[in-house]
Structure formats: structure tokens, C-alpha cells
Design a protein that fits this description.
Elements: E1 2-6, H1 20-34, E2 38-44, E3 52-57, H2 71-84, E4 90-93, H3 100-103, E5 110-113, H4 123-129, E6 134-137, E7 150-154, E8 174-180, H5 187-197, E9 201-206, H6 212-219, E10 228-230, H7 236-244, E11 246-251, H8 261-268, E12 273-276, H9 281-284, E13 291-294, H10 297-304, H11 312-322, H12 325-342, H13 348-353
Parallel strand pairs: 1-2, 1-4, 2-3, 4-5, 5-6, 6-7, 8-9, 8-11, 9-10, 11-12, 12-13
Helix pairs in contact: 1-12, 5-10
């Protein structure tokens, strides 16, 4: 099957540091290539892939200080994909609703994975306008605000199986917070939970420009507490050690998280997750097996006192069974085939052979 993966240009694929969507696109692309598919990746020029790379912009927009209008490079990419659309069996977009108008007017089947939050009122008329646009959710809970969308499938994110491995040589000694510092991620709640448990907490997190004022005013004063250590943004290569050294990952979110990649990163390292019951959390974390799903700080403290009942080996096995990139790629291949069948399309490679 000839597949085009169209990634956002904000980060490289994979990102150098933080970047959720672009990382998932990378894991999916590489897994599809390993499964024998012909994949072309439309992304920034500093991306690294085993697929055919079409460099739409020289480098990731976040790393280019000259960029002031991030939409302009994306418009160029959409037109480049449109000009080459007939070369592919499937166009797979990771750009929210951007492709809906243009690509609903051409013949090559396309689908879009929706990676972000969908509970924004301005999205309602967009999905009302394009009822035929096929979309994939990354959790069942993500779908709730848009029941009218043309849902093709729910496919959970996955990581390369050997990318993050447990480090049994490291004795857990703290609680961990990983990801991004923003109001909805509630690092302040994580700090409070750790204090109530009498445990140190290490925070490995990025601060976006949009959240700098929030950090300066509300979070920075909390970082001076003796039980808190702020590490900053960490790379992929540092995560296995960071997560393996944690008693648990704290995920006290205050928003309808569409998936939560950090939860399966922790599971890959055998580290249990204590997460608030929001969004996708009950779909990702099996309560009492890979962690505990709680409603508030008090329940989180109680759950932390029950960590001894969980097996880190079992946490890792659950990751292997549910959240590898190969499993994700197989799910997307099934979705591609379903979409081709719906539109009565024949795979281009089969046409060439025939």
C-alpha cells in the first residue's frame, strides 16, 4: 500500500525534545515501513525516517526564529500533497481539520487522526460542514463532544516496543511528573500530592511561551519547596532512567485528555500511573493493575499507599500487549483497508502488478 503521512511542521519527526503529535507520526511511520508498506512522510527537513521524506520546510518551525506565521508553510504543504495525491492509495493527515475542504474535492481517499481536544464550541460548525470527512479518534472519550463526526475508528497510540525499557538496576526513590507545565496538566496538584505523601517529586517538563506567565506567577514559587526538583525538558534517551527511578508517575489532569502519551511511556518502564479520572485515563490505565484511577488528591494519596500491591513486571506486560507501535500500525492498516473498501478503491501496487 502506498501511504502518505502528513505531519505538522511545528516539530521535526521525531521531535528533538517535547512534541506529542510528531512523535506519534514518527512511531507510526517507522512501524508501517517495518510492516512492508511504501510510506512517504511530508514533514520538516530535519526529520529522520526510514520512509521517503518530502521536506516541505527546511527545519521545524519551533526552531526557526524567523517564522512568524506558522500557517503559511502548512498551506504550502497541503498544496504539495494535493499535487501528488494520485500517487498514493491513502493520504493520512495529522493536521486537525485543515485538509477537510481541499481534500474533500479530490479522489484519493484520506483520513485525519484528531490528536487534540475537541470540546471547543467553534469546532461544531466545522464538523457540521464536512460530514463526509473520515476521522480517527485516539480514545473513545475524545469523541464525546463531536458525535456528528464521521468516525472511522479509535486507535490508541503506541511506542516502539524496545524504545523505553525498565531499569531494574535503579531503585525507585521519588514521584515523577513528565510532560508540559500548563494549567490543565496541574503540576501544582502533583506537588501537593507528593507533599501529603512525604515523598520527593521530580518534574521533567517543558514550558511553552503561552504558559510562561502561568509558570512565573503560580508554579515557580512552588518549585522552591524542599521536596521538589525541577529538571526541565528531557530527551527520549533520558526517559527510561527518569521513569524507572519513580515509585509512580503522577497524572492529575484537569481537562479531557485525548490520550496522554506519558502514561504509556511510564508503563513501558514498568512504572505505575496515578491518574485523575478525566478523558482517556480509564481507557489507558487498568485500575489496580497498571496504576490507580482516582478522583482527587485524597484518593491519590491513598492509592500511593497501595503501590506495593502492583507488579512492575505486569505493568510492562500490559504495555507490550496494548500500546506498541506495531499494534498501532496494524490498527491503522485495518482502517486504511476499510476506507479503501468503502470507496471501492484498488491498491495502486496491485494495479501495477495486475
Amino acid at each position: 500500500m502506498r501511504i502518505a503521512q502528513i505531519a505538522p511542521l511545528h516539530e521535526a519527526v521525531p521531535p528533538k525534545l517535547y512534541g506529542g503529535t510528531e512523535r506519534v507520526v514518527s512511531y507510526l511511520t517507522e512501524a508501517l515501513v517495518e510492516l512492508g508498506q511504501e510510506v512517504t512522510l511530508f514533514a520538516s527537513g530535519d526529520s529522520i525516517t526510514a520512509a521517503q521524506l518530502e521536506a516541505v520546510w527546511p527545519q521545524a518551525l519551533r526552531l526557526d526564529p524567523k517564522i512568524r506565521d506558522a500557517l503559511a508553510p502548512h498551506m504550502l504543504m497541503l498544496e504539495q500533497v494535493r499535487e501528488r495525491a494520485q500517487e498514493f492509495d491513502i493520504l493520512h493527515f495529522h493536521l486537525d481539520y485543515y485538509p477537510f475542504s481541499l481534500f474533500s474535492r479530490q479522489n484519493t481517499p484520506f483520513l485525519t487522526t484528531l490528536h487534540g481536544r475537541l470540546d471547543l464550541p467553534e469546532l461544531q460548525p466545522v464538523f457540521n460542514m464536512f460530514p463526509q470527512a473520515q476521522v480517527v479518534s485516539i480514545s473513545d472519550s475524545q469523541r464525546a463532544p463531536l458525535p456528528q463526526a464521521n468516525w472511522l475508528s479509535t486507535i490508541y497510540h503506541g511506542l516502539p516496543e524496545k524504545m523505553l525499557m525498565p531499569r531494574p538496576d535503579i531503585k525507585p526513590g521519588y514521584l515523577a511528573f513528565l510532560g508540559r507545565i500548563s494549567p490543565e496538566k496541574r503540576v501544582d496538584t502533583a506537588i501537593s500530592i507528593a507533599a501529603k505523601c512525604g515523598l520527593p517529586i521530580k518534574i521533567a517538563a517543558k514550558i511553552d511561551k503561552a504558559d510562561q506567565a502561568y509558570y512565573d506567577e503560580q508554579i515557580a514559587p512552588l518549585m522552591s519547596q524542599p521536596h521538589v526538583e525541577y529538571i526541565g525538558e528531557i530527551s527520549e534517551g533520558e526517559k527510561a532512567e527518569f521513569l524507572s527511578g519513580a515509585h509512580a508517575l503522577l497524572f492529575p489532569i484537569d481537562w479531557p485528555e485525548p490520550f496522554g502519551l506519558v502514561m504509556i511511556e511510564a508503563m513501558a518502564c514498568g512504572t505505575p500511573v496515578i491518574a485523575f479520572k478525566r478523558g482517556s485515563v480509564p481507557e489507558v490505565i487498568e485500575h489496580g493493575v497498571t496504576g490507580f484511577v482516582v478522583n482527587n488528591e485524597t484518593e491519590a494519596v491513598t492509592a500511593l499507599n497501595r503501590l506495593h500491591t502492583l507488579s512492575r513486571d505486569t505493568v510492562r506486560k500490559q504495555f507490550e500487549e496494548r500500546f506498541t507501535s506495531q499494534r498501532m500500525a496494524e490498527g491503522y492498516l485495518a482502517a486504511y483497508e476499510r476506507l479503501l473498501h468503502q470507496q471501492r478503491r484498488t491498491v495502486l501496487r496491485e494495479v501495477a502488478v495486475g
